[in-house]
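Field log, afternoon session.

UNIT: design team B
ACTIVITY: writing a sequence onto a fixed backbone
BACKBONE:
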């Protein structure tokens, strides 16, 4: 008898139809997301299943961390980030997902820390950094170009590129800025990983090169901001016949 009961149970379990998971509805309105401890983590604004409108993210202490304006799943409008004490840390404007305009950063006491200009998601010239007193930074690194002529021995004319002072990180390019901003048409040049770069002209015997070269540097400053600078140099070199 015990065997029969177990058999019936197994047959019933095997013949039971599987339940389909319900398809999730398209999200609209404000969707709240909570942490495991029950505290509010996010308030996300949706329209037709896409992020649209003002969304907010909160620090674990309940203070506002990030508020972002969205349009069709792309950041569009003003994004604000806050310190844990509720003081504003940064203001960034987006246009269809790309940073545009002036990005502003603030110290924990609310004073302006830095201003950086962007266009179509690319960094531009004009960085302004401010010290704790509120005064602007008096000077910034400059590009230093040092030529080395080895056309006779190696067939190359080298331009060694460096900066006038210490920085956190730098990328060098050959080309000219557009409206003072970086763009994808710039040529990245060799860097040794120690904030020094090099551009080389390869010359055949009898070849002559004359041009104005423009070097661009995308610099990450010690304060963590992006400085865009450039410098031009006239190059006139000939590899003579040996």
């Amino acid at each position: 008898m015990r065997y029969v009961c177990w058999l019936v149970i197994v047959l019933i379990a095997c013949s039971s139809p599987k339940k389909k998971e319900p398809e999730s509805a398209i999200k609209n309105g404000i969707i709240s997301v909570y942490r495991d401890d029950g505290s509010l983590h996010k308030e996300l604004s949706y329209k037709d299943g896409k992020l649209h409108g003002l969304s907010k993210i909160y620090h674990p202490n309940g203070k506002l961390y990030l508020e972002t304006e969205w349009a069709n799943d792309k950041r569009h409008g003003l994004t604000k980030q806050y310190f844990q004490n509720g003081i504003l840390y940064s203001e960034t404007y987006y246009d269809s997902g790309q940073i545009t305009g002036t990005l502003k950063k603030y110290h924990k006491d609310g004073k302006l820390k830095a201003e950086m200009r962007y266009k179509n998601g690319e960094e531009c010239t004009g960085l302004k950094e401010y010290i704790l007193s509120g005064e602007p930074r008096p000077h910034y690194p400059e590009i230093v170009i040092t030529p080395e002529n080895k056309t006779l021995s190696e067939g190359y004319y080298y331009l060694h590129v460096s900066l006038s002072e210490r920085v956190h990180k730098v990328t060098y390019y050959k080309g000219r800025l557009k409206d003072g901003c970086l763009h994808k048409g710039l040529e990245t040049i060799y860097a040794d990983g120690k904030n020094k770069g090099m551009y080389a002209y390869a010359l055949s015997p009898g070849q002559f090169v004359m041009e104005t070269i423009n070097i661009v540097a995308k610099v990450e400053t010690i304060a963590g901001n992006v400085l865009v600078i450039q410098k031009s140099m006239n190059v006139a070199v000939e590899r003579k016949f040996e």
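LOG NOTE: The longest helix spans residues 2-15.
NEXT ACTIVITY: expression trials, pending approval
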